[in-house]
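Per reviewer request, we include the raw input and output of the structure prediction for the construct analysed in the revised manuscript.
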Amino acid sequence: MNFRLGVSWYPELVAESEWPRDLANIRDAGINLLRLFDFAWSAMEPREGDFQWDWVRRCLDLAHSDGFSVIFCTPTATPPRWLGEQYPQIMIELADGTRRPMGARRDVCINSPIYRHFCGELADRLAKEFASHPAVEAWQIDNELIGPEYSPPECHCPECQWRFRDFLKKRYGSFEVLNAAWGTRFWSQEFSDWGEVTTPRHFRSIDGHVIDHGRFFTASLSEFIAVQADRIRPHLRPGQLIGHNATGVFDRQIDHRCIQKPLDFSGWDAYRGAAGGPHSAARTGLAHELFRSTHHKPFLIYETGAELESINGANWGEMRARGAYAIIPWHYRRHRSGVESGGDMLADYDGTPLPGRIEHVAKLGQRLAEAGPLPDKLPPTDTAFLFSADMVRVQHRPKPRWDGPFVTKMPYLVSVSAFYEPLWRNGVRVDVLGPEDPLDAYRLVVLPADELVSTTRILQLHKWVSGGGHLVVSGRFALRSSEGVYRANPEPELVELLGARPLDRTQNVEIDGWTGVGHSLELPDGSLSDPAQARTHTLNSGSVTHLPCECPSLVGSALRDACGRAGVSWFDNIAAETCIVPEGDRLWLINHGSTTATILGHDVPPEDFVIQTSAQF
């Protein structure tokens, strides 16, 4: 699969007489892939049932004649004003009962049957009209489905209440089982009938209530995508694929792997810092690995920053090294109005390329193309990194009122960064898995800071480690059920797995100048493990390492040792802000820092990459 360089372009915001000049300038940058129409609903359907296809067809015809392929986006993230004004029940209801008014994007209920009807109908008509067009290479469903703007992923309207109740009925079977799973006797919150079960509106709702609502929202997003994908598929030409541009990868309570799996390929909007921090570059690398491992094939960067500090060799090099077959800056020319006007794009408001920027993009795109093609399939790695959206849900409590940007420093995500950064820096590729995914393909599993572990998963881990697997866990591992209830009597398999009993016991520790919290286990003789020391327990031919804290030197040393036991390659790299990405018989040496770095004896310029074959090491 050859590398592709693309750009997002908004022909509906540009005079048609300017299209040829824009496309000529885009082509001169070495760009051959256009991402179009993601916000164009009102231009396509200015009034209900009044579809305007002629301009769309002229745009596709011109793009095709100029040698471009197109990712055709369904514009359902921005419903036209007529839809929200005529059918106000499609607007989301926040936890405090407020209905969002029209005026932004994504402020509509994805479970609304009315909204789903209009979205499905539009997707069907678009596919009938344009799937056969030779310019259309792939389809993107909606845009960045993460819930309403500047709000937690939620809707509490009557339709969502009913669907959430139905989701729980299928999961638990009876409200008595639900009461037991959630522990609702606390504060006398037991349900006596299904009709009493609602979405969690209170910021002090029971943990299981919050966790299951997050699972429900992820399932709702998958259903909403299917509403459109199922209408598009019958009209596709052979080879046309359907995807979706994810965002808010780790901190939005959404399991993006579940959303991506029903689609044909994966991808996300990889803006600088979009995967969060600390260790922002490493967390971005983990997001790349997540989308690569979802389908085990090359993925797409649907959007990334078009400012020069984002278009650099380190960022784009790591995207390509981890499996991105196409990179699409957002976007070509500045908007003249709206909340996304201004900014450093590739061209100014009039479509004039900004000095040096087009040339910079073309040069970097050419370097990545010269790195060679990607295979159509990318095999699993030796190492699995388990990420729990449930831990995000339980630590990101709903608030009674939205009071600012959706930014969080959850302890769980801090742990995720602390445990992935050494793997990222020292060249350990990972597949990102969910809490219940099979482990048979892996020799090493890293499972940081997950308190919410089901009995089923404990049994799976016990069997896998007994069969020769090597597991690294940390902190308050498996103290609670997957619904958030603390275990009174840990399963024998859990105690045998750890060689100790997990405890909710902490104390402050200091190691090598690092200070933080350490967690203890109860050992077979009744004593407590050292909260400042890693502890490795063997089980048949496998091993389990429990890391009690997040001291960087302790975590790095323990992960290096675990890789050695598992036979996983580890490259000793001490350079800060750098990483090593193995790819086949070569290594990408990537420097995210602002000064030249020495990686494995090779000097790598600032914000750039160097590729070396394995014969050079």
